[in-house]
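#dry-run=false #mode=assembly
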Amino acid sequence: MSESQQDFSSIALPTSLIAERQGDIAILRLNRAHKRNALDDDTVIGIDAFFDGLPGDIGAVLLVGEGDNFSAGLDLSELKERDVSEGIQHSRLWHRAFEKIQFGKVPVVAVLHGAVVGGGLELAASAHVRVAERSAYYALPEGSRGIFVGGGGSVRLPRLIGVARMVDMMLTGRTYSAEEGQAMGLTTYLVEAGKGVAKGLELAQRIASNAPLTNFAVMHTLPRIAESDPAAGYAMESLISSIAQADPEAKTRLRDFLEKRGPKVKQG
Ligand code: 1HE
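#status=ok
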């Protein structure tokens, strides 16, 4: 196999994950539909290994769930015997794996349908773009289970939907519909049943066609700038924008546009 067509055979994946590629897009499927894609330790370790080992020619990842649900969250059957220090290690395991999604090599598009709850919502929140099918619903049932989010949800979700909404979800067990999730900015695309993967793939292909340095800047620099004080943010923005524009890839793309070869912006 040529280096430009590496597959994922060198990455140790559990049976609960299936990886495939379509050109330069990697598709990672949660494959535990009989347990509603509940995330057991093997699956979370597999997610970590997958994003760590992504071949260099992959331009974007599509994250999807098999069956009728994206994910029912933490596998509750593994939780019952953990003590405090094991609980901390377990949460850190999730943090490491999901960090590799959010601050990994390439952008990730998550396609959400059915249950997107608890740790499943935390997983979705670590992706860069979220597409919902109309069947998707969102909840944080941790409150009723006597536990707390542990997969980065308390960091990522308030940034997406606000602290007040997350507090409400955790205290009252409130469920939001796909339409509500779209209105509150949890997802940025809402499509009909069965159309999520096609939409996600279309978006992933568009993302993969960007200059890699721009994608890096959007993934790694933009969230840090948004968290900075404005003065540091402006300085960081000037630095990363000048680095990106000095890249030969940017020069080629700008020349293409000016010489009428590059694409025009299309009306939405
Ligand atoms: C599970 C899990 C799970 C299903 N862990 N096994 N997450 C939750 O609290 C959500 C719990 N799950 C549910 O509320 C429901 O399963 C669903 C609404 C998602 C789907 O309902 P349904 O009727 O389609 O399926 P089901 O019959 O409830 O479940 C089918 C099987 O999946 C069944 O196992 P079976 O052996 O009896 O067939 C369920 O036990 C199993 N299953 N969800 C383990 N979550 C890092 S901290 C994160 C903290 C959290 O994520 S807390 C939220 C946990």
